[in-house]
Amino acid sequence: MASTDKSGQGVARIAALLRAIGSSSAATSTTALAAAAGLARPTAHRLLTALAAEGLVDRDNRTGDWSLGPELYLLGATAAAAYDIRDDAQSVLDRLAGESGESVFLSARRGDETVCVAGQEGSFPVRSHVLYEGIRFPLGVASAGLAILSHLPDRDIDDYLQRSDLGATWGPEHAHDMIRRRIARTRLDGYATNPALLVEASWGMGAAVFDSDGRPAWALSLTGVEARFQPERRTELGRLLLAQAHELTRKLQVRRKSSTRLS
């Protein structure tokens, strides 16, 4: 049993390092990756060296910084056929950005987190810079994660909140009772609203996108400055978000049926 626990811990550490590298827009130092993954620097260096030997990460010989390696690209290309929905989503992102003028993003659920996988800038010149491709947030943090969390079964929500302490990391507005209030509101509206809880004066709204089994697997979100998210306009943006989230859900279900027939 102890051996199994250690193996699981090792996998979790490697996964944390790979996520830390993938969430950065540039090559990153061992020290920074160790801090991001919650590891001691010697442990991080040992694991990174082993990953480099397998081609899963690369190290810059001049700076010593780390980036994702070629083997991950090959693995990702294989996985993309099953998990990459950006081609299906592009017309939806374009339409949302065009009709709202705001920045639009697509996020995917990955376990207890969401990761932003695509974005499209709107025409309004002042933008919020909270979201960008590759950034991760825990479920319940940011509008995409709140939208997904709100559409999970109550038991799954309870289990998630029991094993997480978002208030300690993200502030009192993310304490469990506050998140539950926002879940209730999201279920009532159909879409989630983030009223500048991450960055002052930067608002976001999100709507869940469902897979063929009816699970909230992705989310569309709009972000912008507070002046653009007044109550009357939020209602309008919410309707737009829900319509496009439904459209993307429908497209994914059609793709799933087509691939099932072909197989």
Automatic annotation (TrEMBL):
Residues 8-70 form the HTH iclR-type domain. Keywords: DNA-binding, Transcription, Transcription regulation. The keyword DNA-binding applies. Pfam families: HTH_IclR, IclR_C. One of its GO terms (molecular function) is DNA-binding transcription factor activity. Coiled coil: none annotated. SMART domains: HTH_ICLR. Residues 71-254 form the IclR-ED domain. GO terms for biological process: negative regulation of DNA-templated transcription. The keyword DNA-binding applies. This is Putative IclR family transcriptional regulator. It comes from Gordonia malaquae NBRC 108250.
